[in-house]
């Protein structure tokens, strides 16, 4: 009888896993069920673009039906509430599923570090819906400025200058001048702050590329407050560690990620930020039939550091999880996770990016931007969505 494989989440990891398993297994081997909150797949690496209105929702989402087509993958549009690993069931908002094999690929939650008011009074950017909310809000600030004339309406604060924060700040720097012209708003009133607690923006990234990124963004008007933790947020006010405050109607938090509630609540072994610990085959520790992949997971590289929660790692985890589920069904040897790392690329707006691809190849500017774009198209081809956009 076919084994029931339930895959939770159709992000990079879950979708790739479902598609690969479908390639490997026949319907006699596996019944594949894919659960996702929305009926579309989101290119979350591009969220900063719709967040400022540089792209539309349809540019960064792809209908799951169009990707799955007539493949024997059953898609259920529903939200995962909880996992009962003892009973081997998953509670969805509208039904309960049982499984023989489970893949948890539910992404990550935002880490607020317990900072007072941060969760309540800031925007986050983890889904296309949240990106749309940010865009609508920014547009309203510009639209209403000439009526209300509050400076905080044109002051934009991005908390956290990791890759998410920097990519967003880059888009803001390119988009806000357009809104200034559109709504006839005084240019000198528009302020973009990037606030970072660590001694440098993009902590851990190549120092030469960090310097280039900082200068490129400063040249377009971004003000950096570095080594300056956000310590509290109140409606309209961001408090910094040195006692300074910024009056703003727009605080966007990109200060970090943590594991998802469903994994923590289910009692899987996690590290302090709630990401699941895995064995070398990407299975949850102590479980031979549960794979936890993508941003929800915590897997150490040979130097003992966790692989970053990036799309390239998620895709490779999805691929290997499918191989190992198939191997488990067929009683074959399981493979270990040894990802190929292609380096990191961060965009700094519409035409500029920085890429750390190897010690000798660190392109910046337009070339790096094209490389980032090419990786998006290569991914779309992997999921068979190249011509579905
Ligand atoms: P992150 O954890 O990488 O960065 C968060 C930043 O917020 C850090 O620099 C941290 O020092 C700062 N911060 C934390 N608390 C703060 C405070 N109180 N005040 C001010 N700053 C504070 O998170 P991210 O940028 O969302 O990225 C998450 C993961 O996704 C990373 O591994 C990143 O590399 C990856 N990512 C990759 C890309 C890409 O490859 N282009 C894009 C986005 C994210």
UniProtKB/TrEMBL annotation:
Keywords: FAD, Flavoprotein, Oxidoreductase. One of its GO terms (biological process) is aerobic electron transport chain. Residues 3-318 form the FAD/NAD(P)-binding domain. The keyword Flavoprotein applies. Its cofactor is FAD. It comes from the Bacteria. InterPro entries: FAD/NAD-bd_sf, FAD/NAD-binding_dom, NADH-Q_oxidoreductase. It comes from Tumebacillus flagellatus. GO terms for molecular function: NAD(P)H dehydrogenase (quinone) activity. Pfam families: Pyr_redox_2. The keyword Oxidoreductase applies. Belongs to the NADH dehydrogenase family. This is FAD/NAD(P)-binding domain-containing protein.
